[in-house]
What does this fold into?
Amino acid sequence: MDEKWDFEEENEGEEDDDGDFVEQKHQRDCVVFLIDARRSMLSSGYYFKCLDAARSTLKSRIIACDRDQLGICLFGTEKKNNQMDFDYMSILVPLDEPKPQTIQMLDDVVKNQKECDWGHSDKDWRSSGFPMHEAFWLCQQMFSDALVPKDATKRIFVLTDDDNPVQSNQILRDRFLRKAHDMLQSQHEILVFPLSPANKTFDLSVIWKGITSTEYGEILDTEDLMTIIRKKVFQKRALTHIKWAIGPGIEISIGIYSTVVPTRPPQPKYLDTNHNPLVSRTKYFSSLTVKEVNPDQILRGTNFGGETVDFTNEELKEIKSAGERGLKLLGFKDAKRLKDYHNITHSYFVFPSEKIISGSSKSFFAFHSQMLKQNKIAICKLVKSETSRPKLVALVPSVKSMNPDNDIILSHEGMHMIVLPWANEIREPPIPPPMSDITPQQQQAADDLVDSLKMKQFSSDLFSNPAIQKYYACLQAMALGQSGVEEVEDDLVPNSAALHHANRQITNFREAFFGDENSYEAKLAVTRTTKSTTSRAPRPLLGDDGKYDWRGLAERDQLSLLSVVDLKIYLTENRLPASGKKQDIINRIKAHLMS
It folds into this structure.
């Protein structure tokens, strides 16, 4: 069970120290995609790219958080379809929680390149200007009609290739800016995704600057659009806000954010035959009288010296109490004292918050700057709740840095919270002495092999969990009524073809440690024969040349006696795909031998 950031009530005082922090309450996120549907967007292909981005967002939100609300509003349509009777405005998808039917509709539109039912305006707006303030009025009405909760975030994603829709019309310009600032004052967020127009550059400073929090340049292709929207859809939500005691009577408030959250398939809900949710209830019975026992009559017992010591729930909570929840500064240490092996779990990001104590940001960054200047880290005591076990943590200051090639933020300004191990959690495994009989030739062969197999520009965020991806692909196919399941590519399958550039280093390494190729194959054959059991069929012997007779094995239908690792030797040597189940690999080998 995951340990939760539940500060109001914990499960009868129990806590799981191996768990992770999770959000107390998910703040609903409501997003309206305001897409330019004029003829120029259709001609450039941006219209369908924007709908595809919205469709992808709906798919991701229906999995990540189906309580969020998303809608699509089109401006620049030939006809109108909206409750406010605005010209050139149409609501394609009302603001609502993601629905499979909506995704199916967008799939059909994008796949078949279907134009909008209300047409695409080809009017020349350069003289009159487009009434963008009416588009914002309509978006605001969509939030109102959807009964969006007061604490929900309300955001408008504007996707257009027009950096000045109002043109030189000063009246429309004033109305647009006034309405945009009114929406910002009422806690709406406006994000502009500047699509690169034909034969010119998208200039945000013409009219959009000052009303949007856009922090990137014009978007040149679909991949950029998908990536940026994906980053903007997933908001940075604080796990919790707590106080940080930095001295007697001195406290500031901070927000704690999770940098990594394990993804797990959701637990299934139990339903009856009519698809109604089942409700479970727990009752306790005495083993002697078989009578029901009320929760307030239940004691907790533990053995100590052969005796059973009883506790009530209140007594147990009092014993486990580690003091008031929050963060308490213990002192500072040199940053070099923090070792890599001190990271027993992933880190958390700490940033000042004004929600509890105003003025916390100035105090926080005063500490931050001095810690950076003196190369120090802060050692603190963390208590998540009054019944939680205390944790020892280190706060490591970080500075904002960006990738100069693509302006992607690599790290933010703030502090990283490292959960430190206690003394009884540190292990010192026995380390065998280094081998002294390795020859210089073997050492050089190992160095060359490692160098040749180094992964260029490796990043773990490039790899998706294949089990999770397959789970959601099956779920999506069933929910959308699709005939087949979308094939999921396993990024963890080694690319055998890419290893051919290291063939020479691999051969040198094998010969340096195991002799020539024939000797190596003979040793493998002896090892395999030794490990074989009487329950398995005998493994085919190697040929006189120390290699497998692949054609003979295939003709005798004996390929199944080889392991998957053995079969992949053939695939690698012949540059064939090495993915798939064992039978798929056997069929691939047979087809290649017959070709």
